[in-house]
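WARN retry 2 of 3 for item q-0093 after timeout on previous attempt; input resubmitted unchanged.
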Amino acid sequence: MAGRAQAFSDPTVIALASEQFIPVAENSSALERQQDDKGVFFRHVAEQGHYGGRTYPTGTRQGSYAFTAEGQFLASVNTRDPGRMAEMLRMALDRWQAGYDHGGPAPVQLVTSRADDRGYPRGGLALQLVARDLPRAVDTRPDDWRKIAWNIDYAWFTRDEAHALIPEPRAVGTRKAAPWSIVRRLARFHLRDFVRGEPFAWPEEAIRHGELWSEIIDAAGPMTRLALRGAVCLETEVQWVRPEDGEERRYPSGYDCTLYGEATWDNAQSAFTAFELAAVGQRWGANQYNNREDDLGPQPLGIAFLLAGDTPSDRTPPHCLRTWRQSREDARPSRVAVAQQEYFGG
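OK item q-0093 returned
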Protein backbone atom coordinates (compact mmCIF):
# COMPACT_ATOMS: atom_id res chain seq x y z
CA MET A 1 0.00 0.00 0.00
CA ALA A 2 2.89 2.36 0.66
CA GLY A 3 4.01 1.84 -2.92
CA ARG A 4 0.56 2.82 -4.18
CA ALA A 5 0.67 5.87 -1.89
CA GLN A 6 3.90 6.99 -3.53
CA ALA A 7 2.25 6.96 -6.96
CA PHE A 8 -0.99 8.56 -5.81
CA SER A 9 0.70 11.34 -3.82
CA ASP A 10 1.87 12.96 -7.07
CA PRO A 11 -0.11 16.18 -7.86
CA THR A 12 -0.61 15.21 -11.51
CA VAL A 13 -1.95 11.78 -10.59
CA ILE A 14 -4.17 13.30 -7.88
CA ALA A 15 -5.66 15.78 -10.35
CA LEU A 16 -6.31 13.14 -13.01
CA ALA A 17 -7.75 10.56 -10.60
CA SER A 18 -10.00 12.97 -8.70
CA GLU A 19 -11.21 15.17 -11.59
CA GLN A 20 -11.55 12.67 -14.45
CA PHE A 21 -12.24 9.37 -12.65
CA ILE A 22 -14.11 7.95 -9.67
CA PRO A 23 -11.42 6.32 -7.47
CA VAL A 24 -12.31 2.96 -5.89
CA ALA A 25 -10.05 0.79 -3.71
CA GLU A 26 -10.62 -2.96 -3.33
CA ASN A 27 -8.73 -6.03 -2.14
CA SER A 28 -7.81 -7.87 -5.34
CA SER A 29 -6.80 -11.03 -3.44
CA ALA A 30 -10.45 -11.76 -2.66
CA LEU A 31 -11.84 -10.57 -5.99
CA GLU A 32 -9.52 -12.91 -7.86
CA ARG A 33 -11.40 -15.85 -6.32
CA GLN A 34 -14.85 -14.96 -5.06
CA GLN A 35 -17.69 -16.53 -7.02
CA ASP A 36 -20.25 -13.73 -7.08
CA ASP A 37 -21.13 -10.88 -9.44
CA LYS A 38 -18.47 -8.64 -7.95
CA GLY A 39 -15.76 -11.25 -8.56
CA VAL A 40 -16.97 -11.90 -12.12
CA PHE A 41 -16.99 -8.16 -12.83
CA PHE A 42 -13.44 -7.70 -11.56
CA ARG A 43 -12.00 -10.67 -13.41
CA HIS A 44 -13.60 -9.53 -16.66
CA VAL A 45 -11.70 -6.25 -16.34
CA ALA A 46 -8.46 -7.69 -14.93
CA GLU A 47 -8.06 -10.39 -17.58
CA GLN A 48 -7.73 -7.65 -20.20
CA GLY A 49 -5.06 -5.84 -18.19
CA HIS A 50 -1.35 -6.05 -17.50
CA TYR A 51 -1.51 -9.46 -15.75
CA GLY A 52 -4.24 -11.02 -17.89
CA GLY A 53 -3.78 -14.80 -18.11
CA ARG A 54 -0.76 -14.77 -15.81
CA THR A 55 -0.09 -17.86 -13.68
CA TYR A 56 3.71 -17.65 -13.22
CA PRO A 57 5.42 -16.91 -10.91
CA THR A 58 2.09 -16.06 -9.25
CA GLY A 59 -1.46 -15.58 -10.48
CA THR A 60 -1.89 -12.17 -8.88
CA ARG A 61 -4.03 -9.48 -10.54
CA GLN A 62 -3.03 -6.61 -8.27
CA GLY A 63 -2.58 -3.18 -9.75
CA SER A 64 -4.57 -0.16 -10.89
CA TYR A 65 -7.34 -0.48 -13.48
CA ALA A 66 -9.35 2.13 -15.38
CA PHE A 67 -12.73 0.98 -16.71
CA THR A 68 -16.26 2.23 -17.31
CA ALA A 69 -19.20 1.65 -14.96
CA GLU A 70 -20.33 -1.16 -17.28
CA GLY A 71 -16.98 -2.95 -16.99
CA GLN A 72 -15.44 -1.80 -20.28
CA PHE A 73 -11.67 -2.08 -19.84
CA LEU A 74 -9.66 1.05 -20.68
CA ALA A 75 -6.12 0.67 -19.29
CA SER A 76 -4.13 -0.71 -16.36
CA VAL A 77 -0.71 -0.80 -14.71
CA ASN A 78 1.02 -2.12 -11.59
CA THR A 79 3.55 0.49 -10.50
CA ARG A 80 4.60 2.91 -7.80
CA ASP A 81 6.08 5.28 -10.39
CA PRO A 82 3.91 8.43 -10.60
CA GLY A 83 4.92 8.98 -14.22
CA ARG A 84 3.72 5.56 -15.34
CA MET A 85 0.51 5.94 -13.32
CA ALA A 86 -0.26 9.29 -14.97
CA GLU A 87 0.51 7.81 -18.38
CA MET A 88 -1.97 4.99 -17.75
CA LEU A 89 -4.70 7.41 -16.64
CA ARG A 90 -4.19 9.61 -19.70
CA MET A 91 -4.37 6.57 -21.98
CA ALA A 92 -7.62 5.49 -20.33
CA LEU A 93 -9.10 8.96 -20.66
CA ASP A 94 -8.11 9.21 -24.34
CA ARG A 95 -9.62 5.81 -25.06
CA TRP A 96 -12.86 6.67 -23.27
CA GLN A 97 -13.21 9.96 -25.15
CA ALA A 98 -12.50 8.18 -28.46
CA GLY A 99 -15.19 5.57 -27.81
CA TYR A 100 -12.68 2.74 -27.33
CA ASP A 101 -14.45 -0.61 -27.70
CA HIS A 102 -12.41 -3.67 -26.81
CA GLY A 103 -13.62 -6.69 -24.85
CA GLY A 104 -17.11 -5.36 -24.23
CA PRO A 105 -18.84 -4.65 -20.92
CA ALA A 106 -18.79 -7.14 -18.05
CA PRO A 107 -21.31 -10.00 -18.34
CA VAL A 108 -22.80 -8.95 -14.99
CA GLN A 109 -23.67 -5.48 -13.74
CA LEU A 110 -23.40 -4.18 -10.18
CA VAL A 111 -26.32 -1.75 -10.19
CA THR A 112 -28.11 -3.62 -7.40
CA SER A 113 -24.98 -4.77 -5.58
CA ARG A 114 -25.40 -4.33 -1.83
CA ALA A 115 -22.82 -3.34 0.73
CA ASP A 116 -21.07 -6.17 2.53
CA ASP A 117 -19.28 -5.67 5.85
CA ARG A 118 -17.40 -8.95 5.31
CA GLY A 119 -17.57 -10.09 8.92
CA TYR A 120 -16.84 -6.74 10.56
CA PRO A 121 -16.90 -7.26 14.38
CA ARG A 122 -19.85 -5.09 15.34
CA GLY A 123 -19.65 -4.18 19.02
CA GLY A 124 -16.07 -5.41 19.12
CA LEU A 125 -12.70 -3.74 18.60
CA ALA A 126 -11.39 -2.70 15.19
CA LEU A 127 -7.85 -1.32 15.05
CA GLN A 128 -5.78 0.25 12.30
CA LEU A 129 -2.11 -0.76 12.16
CA VAL A 130 0.77 1.29 10.85
CA ALA A 131 4.11 -0.52 10.46
CA ARG A 132 7.29 1.36 9.68
CA ASP A 133 11.05 1.07 9.79
CA LEU A 134 12.43 3.06 12.72
CA PRO A 135 15.50 5.33 12.49
CA ARG A 136 18.85 3.57 12.13
CA ALA A 137 22.31 4.62 13.25
CA VAL A 138 23.67 3.59 9.85
CA ASP A 139 21.13 3.54 7.03
CA THR A 140 22.14 1.79 3.80
CA ARG A 141 18.67 1.44 2.30
CA PRO A 142 18.04 2.82 -1.20
CA ASP A 143 16.36 6.22 -1.23
CA ASP A 144 13.05 4.88 -2.56
CA TRP A 145 12.73 2.39 0.32
CA ARG A 146 13.52 5.08 2.88
CA LYS A 147 10.65 7.16 1.55
CA ILE A 148 8.01 4.39 1.52
CA ALA A 149 9.15 2.20 4.42
CA TRP A 150 5.68 2.01 6.00
CA ASN A 151 2.39 0.22 5.45
CA ILE A 152 -1.08 -0.14 7.00
CA ASP A 153 -3.42 -2.98 7.94
CA TYR A 154 -6.37 -3.65 10.24
CA ALA A 155 -6.92 -5.97 13.22
CA TRP A 156 -10.29 -7.27 14.43
CA PHE A 157 -11.37 -8.50 17.86
CA THR A 158 -14.80 -9.74 18.89
CA ARG A 159 -17.12 -8.12 21.41
CA ASP A 160 -16.26 -10.75 24.02
CA GLU A 161 -12.53 -10.23 23.44
CA ALA A 162 -12.90 -6.45 23.86
CA HIS A 163 -14.70 -6.96 27.19
CA ALA A 164 -12.04 -9.47 28.25
CA LEU A 165 -9.40 -6.72 28.31
CA ILE A 166 -11.14 -4.90 31.19
CA PRO A 167 -9.92 -5.94 34.67
CA GLU A 168 -12.38 -6.60 37.45
CA PRO A 169 -13.09 -5.13 39.92
CA ARG A 170 -12.84 -1.75 38.23
CA ALA A 171 -10.51 -0.12 40.69
CA VAL A 172 -7.15 1.61 40.20
CA GLY A 173 -4.33 -0.94 40.29
CA THR A 174 -6.36 -3.95 39.19
CA ARG A 175 -4.48 -5.96 36.53
CA LYS A 176 -5.53 -8.64 34.06
CA ALA A 177 -3.75 -10.79 31.49
CA ALA A 178 -5.27 -10.66 28.01
CA PRO A 179 -6.78 -13.94 26.78
CA TRP A 180 -4.49 -16.10 24.66
CA SER A 181 -6.77 -15.62 21.64
CA ILE A 182 -5.87 -11.91 21.62
CA VAL A 183 -2.15 -12.43 22.20
CA ARG A 184 -2.03 -15.18 19.56
CA ARG A 185 -3.78 -13.05 16.94
CA LEU A 186 -1.54 -10.06 17.60
CA ALA A 187 1.57 -12.21 17.41
CA ARG A 188 0.82 -14.46 14.46
CA PHE A 189 -1.15 -12.18 12.16
CA HIS A 190 -0.21 -8.60 13.06
CA LEU A 191 3.33 -8.45 14.45
CA ARG A 192 4.61 -9.15 10.94
CA ASP A 193 7.18 -7.21 8.96
CA PHE A 194 4.75 -5.97 6.31
CA VAL A 195 6.54 -2.64 5.81
CA ARG A 196 7.60 -3.48 2.24
CA GLY A 197 5.17 -6.20 1.24
CA GLU A 198 3.18 -9.25 2.26
CA PRO A 199 4.90 -11.69 4.66
CA PHE A 200 3.31 -14.96 5.69
CA ALA A 201 1.50 -15.29 8.99
CA TRP A 202 3.83 -16.59 11.69
CA PRO A 203 3.39 -20.33 12.37
CA GLU A 204 2.09 -21.26 15.81
CA GLU A 205 5.48 -22.61 16.90
CA ALA A 206 7.16 -19.27 16.11
CA ILE A 207 5.64 -17.74 19.26
CA ARG A 208 8.48 -18.13 21.75
CA HIS A 209 6.90 -15.75 24.25
CA GLY A 210 3.73 -13.68 24.30
CA GLU A 211 1.88 -11.66 26.93
CA LEU A 212 -0.28 -8.56 27.18
CA TRP A 213 -1.51 -7.06 30.45
CA SER A 214 -4.05 -4.32 31.13
CA GLU A 215 -4.05 -2.31 34.35
CA ILE A 216 -6.60 0.25 35.50
CA ILE A 217 -4.93 3.62 36.05
CA ASP A 218 -8.08 5.75 36.37
CA ALA A 219 -11.65 4.68 37.15
CA ALA A 220 -13.38 8.00 37.81
CA GLY A 221 -16.89 8.42 36.37
CA PRO A 222 -18.07 6.35 33.39
CA MET A 223 -14.60 6.10 31.85
CA THR A 224 -11.99 3.50 32.71
CA ARG A 225 -8.43 4.22 31.60
CA LEU A 226 -6.06 1.33 31.08
CA ALA A 227 -2.31 0.99 30.78
CA LEU A 228 -1.29 -1.73 28.34
CA ARG A 229 2.01 -3.57 28.72
CA GLY A 230 3.44 -6.74 27.24
CA ALA A 231 6.08 -8.42 25.14
CA VAL A 232 6.20 -10.84 22.20
CA CYS A 233 9.11 -12.81 20.80
CA LEU A 234 8.69 -14.56 17.45
CA GLU A 235 11.39 -16.72 15.88
CA THR A 236 11.44 -19.34 13.13
CA GLU A 237 13.20 -20.30 9.91
CA VAL A 238 11.27 -19.03 6.90
CA GLN A 239 11.72 -21.02 3.73
CA TRP A 240 10.29 -21.01 0.23
CA VAL A 241 11.19 -21.98 -3.32
CA ARG A 242 11.59 -19.15 -5.81
CA PRO A 243 9.23 -19.75 -8.76
CA GLU A 244 11.59 -17.80 -11.03
CA ASP A 245 14.54 -20.20 -10.74
CA GLY A 246 13.48 -23.07 -8.44
CA GLU A 247 16.05 -22.05 -5.80
CA GLU A 248 15.23 -22.67 -2.16
CA ARG A 249 15.50 -19.75 0.23
CA ARG A 250 16.02 -20.16 4.00
CA TYR A 251 16.24 -17.26 6.43
CA PRO A 252 16.25 -17.27 10.24
CA SER A 253 13.52 -14.71 10.91
CA GLY A 254 11.86 -13.09 13.88
CA TYR A 255 10.58 -10.08 15.75
CA ASP A 256 11.36 -9.42 19.42
CA CYS A 257 9.29 -6.51 20.68
CA THR A 258 7.90 -4.73 23.70
CA LEU A 259 4.25 -3.67 23.83
CA TYR A 260 3.05 -0.57 25.60
CA GLY A 261 0.11 1.81 25.34
CA GLU A 262 -3.11 3.15 26.84
CA ALA A 263 -6.82 2.71 26.22
CA THR A 264 -10.09 4.23 27.44
CA TRP A 265 -13.20 2.14 28.05
CA ASP A 266 -16.64 3.80 28.17
CA ASN A 267 -18.73 1.89 30.69
CA ALA A 268 -21.98 3.40 29.37
CA GLN A 269 -21.29 2.39 25.76
CA SER A 270 -19.48 -0.86 26.67
CA ALA A 271 -16.86 0.05 24.09
CA PHE A 272 -13.40 1.50 23.73
CA THR A 273 -13.34 5.19 22.87
CA ALA A 274 -9.55 5.30 22.60
CA PHE A 275 -6.93 2.62 22.04
CA GLU A 276 -3.21 3.13 21.41
CA LEU A 277 -0.72 0.27 21.48
CA ALA A 278 2.85 0.32 20.15
CA ALA A 279 5.14 -2.62 19.40
CA VAL A 280 8.81 -1.66 19.22
CA GLY A 281 11.74 -4.00 18.74
CA GLN A 282 14.18 -5.69 16.40
CA ARG A 283 13.15 -7.62 13.28
CA TRP A 284 15.34 -9.87 11.18
CA GLY A 285 15.09 -12.21 8.21
CA ALA A 286 12.86 -12.19 5.12
CA ASN A 287 9.69 -13.65 3.65
CA GLN A 288 8.91 -14.51 0.06
CA TYR A 289 6.90 -11.38 -0.65
CA ASN A 290 8.15 -8.76 1.81
CA ASN A 291 11.21 -7.56 -0.16
CA ARG A 292 13.72 -7.91 2.68
CA GLU A 293 16.41 -10.07 1.08
CA ASP A 294 18.59 -6.96 0.75
CA ASP A 295 17.81 -5.84 4.31
CA LEU A 296 17.99 -8.91 6.56
CA GLY A 297 18.73 -6.99 9.74
CA PRO A 298 18.46 -7.08 12.63
CA GLN A 299 16.95 -3.60 12.37
CA PRO A 300 14.35 -1.66 14.39
CA LEU A 301 10.68 -2.01 13.45
CA GLY A 302 7.66 -0.27 14.98
CA ILE A 303 3.99 -1.21 14.67
CA ALA A 304 1.29 1.11 16.04
CA PHE A 305 -2.28 -0.01 16.76
CA LEU A 306 -4.92 2.75 16.84
CA LEU A 307 -8.69 2.71 17.18
CA ALA A 308 -10.11 2.56 13.64
CA GLY A 309 -12.78 4.98 12.45
CA ASP A 310 -16.20 4.05 11.13
CA THR A 311 -15.87 4.97 7.45
CA PRO A 312 -16.20 2.25 4.78
CA SER A 313 -12.41 2.22 4.30
CA ASP A 314 -11.94 1.68 8.05
CA ARG A 315 -13.92 -1.55 7.71
CA THR A 316 -11.30 -3.06 5.43
CA PRO A 317 -10.69 -6.64 6.63
CA PRO A 318 -7.27 -7.55 8.05
CA HIS A 319 -4.89 -8.64 5.33
CA CYS A 320 -4.53 -12.09 6.89
CA LEU A 321 -8.31 -12.53 6.93
CA ARG A 322 -9.38 -13.31 3.37
CA THR A 323 -13.17 -13.13 3.15
CA TRP A 324 -15.28 -13.74 0.10
CA ARG A 325 -18.58 -15.30 -0.88
CA GLN A 326 -18.39 -18.92 -1.92
CA SER A 327 -21.20 -18.60 -4.47
CA ARG A 328 -23.74 -16.08 -5.73
CA GLU A 329 -26.44 -17.89 -3.76
CA ASP A 330 -24.51 -18.05 -0.49
CA ALA A 331 -25.35 -15.04 1.69
CA ARG A 332 -22.67 -15.86 4.25
CA PRO A 333 -19.09 -14.76 3.65
CA SER A 334 -16.41 -17.27 4.60
CA ARG A 335 -13.58 -16.33 6.92
CA VAL A 336 -10.35 -17.90 5.78
CA ALA A 337 -7.00 -16.70 7.06
CA VAL A 338 -3.98 -17.05 4.83
CA ALA A 339 -2.40 -20.51 4.71
CA GLN A 340 -5.75 -21.91 5.91
CA GLN A 341 -4.98 -20.83 9.50
CA GLU A 342 -7.98 -19.80 11.56
CA TYR A 343 -7.86 -16.06 12.30
CA PHE A 344 -10.37 -16.08 15.16
CA GLY A 345 -9.27 -19.42 16.61
CA GLY A 346 -6.83 -20.19 19.39
